[in-house]
Here is the input.
Amino acid sequence: MSILLSILFGLLLAGVMLVILTDNVDSSKKISWMLIIAVLPIIGIILYLCLGVNYRHHWYFYRKHLHYRDVFTEGTTHEINRLLFSDKSIKGIEERFRPLARLLSQRNFPTPSQDNSVEIITCGKRKFELLMKDITDAKEYIHMEYYLFGNDKWSNRVKEALMEKARQGVKVRFVHENVANFSIRERYYNEMRKAGIEVVKFTNPRKHFLKFVTTLNFRDHRKIVVIDGKIGYTGGMNIKDRYFELWRDTHMRVEGPAVASLQYIFMDAWLSADGQIDLPFKEYFQPWATDLSAATPPAGIPQDVSFKVDSLDSPLPVLSGKTVQMVPDEPDVEWPITQMGYEWILHNAKEYVYIQTPYFIPPEPLLNAIKSAALSGVDVRLMLPQRVDTWFIRPANKSYYTEVLEAGVKIYLRGGQFIHSKTLVCDDYLSIVGSSNLDPRSFDINYEINSFIYDKETAALCKEVFFKDLELCEELDLEQWEKRSWTSVLYEKVMRLFAPMI
Here is the structure.
């Protein structure tokens, strides 16, 4: 019997190794998993099945979206389809960035939309003030999807405001990421339900336990608010005290047709998580569902547009007439769209690319794109926190510093508040405000959303915000960096082996 079990385990081990070897993923990720399984075979196989399987080409895990596609197909109209997927808006984008907009529109993801009003938010208290006012003014419904929604001072004020609106008859729908909020007890959500809020878990272990286990590593990392179909929020800020009081983060409030794209993405999560709707599907897009056949490209912004940002704690100007593309990313579609978008930007940049990210563990193709951009003369700057909030990511972050510095990338370490912003600005035209970090979790594992804004004025503002943050930064010097101890170097190299799985 023991011989038979040994043979079966050997076949299982060989089979898992074969799956890893033939998988179409980053080679560093393959090596990491094979190393873990070689050292701890039983535990390693279990961890791989729960945390490591690449689901991008597994149709079984894409099935949850099929119900939404059916609902959308049955409930949509010609006007809604034009609103979400029209190619006309792409023609209003600067010609050399049109291929990027087409790339990001793959897999029925929304195309760009014109004539949006945008406020870039760089202060948690500003987001809180705006969000609370918009919640108070809501007339029909409030849709929310959050990675973190805490049980603390600021979060409870938002929760109470939502419950009050539900009691007034406003339909409040709330999707929460359940694994990341494991410490919050069910009674917290039951209080919301008793007030009339409809609450669903992004992944429900009771209904689909096997699926829950095999997708345990996936997280709904999005931050989405849609109010009455007219106002939207998205970006990097969760609902938790540290985002409102302690951390430096970037978010965005938008009014205009781009809100319909946020609605489309939210409704996918809501219906896929077994949420219910009470109106015909098309009614949720009515504020912007007009015939776009007469849409014209927006007027160009003068080349010399500029801003002066005195403080990131103060409101920034609201910008009108902007072209915005809401880009979701999911681990169960064929391609890592956000990663491909970043790579495209770096390969096609002419002058500069300025990036803010708290976690810098770039997949190999993106790492090469960063280095090749810098080596070709593009001014590539990375702004990272001086001290990362998670102990095991700190050395993984640092393990990439030497090679990007050697390629000519400038690294700035920001002191003061921990910087959690996920932004990019390129060539005085393209800006990104989103939820994705530069790491494998955001590009391959999490459900994310990023706003791509094609506009000179917005880029000028985002560039000024970057320079304002630079005032609290220290540029990392390659010569000084290489003088760190050999034990630090070794520790960083070891943690880098596990970086693709962090």
Q: What stands out?
A: The chain has 20 helices and 15 strands. Residues 334-501 form a domain with the Endonuclease; Chain A fold (CATH 3.30.870.10).
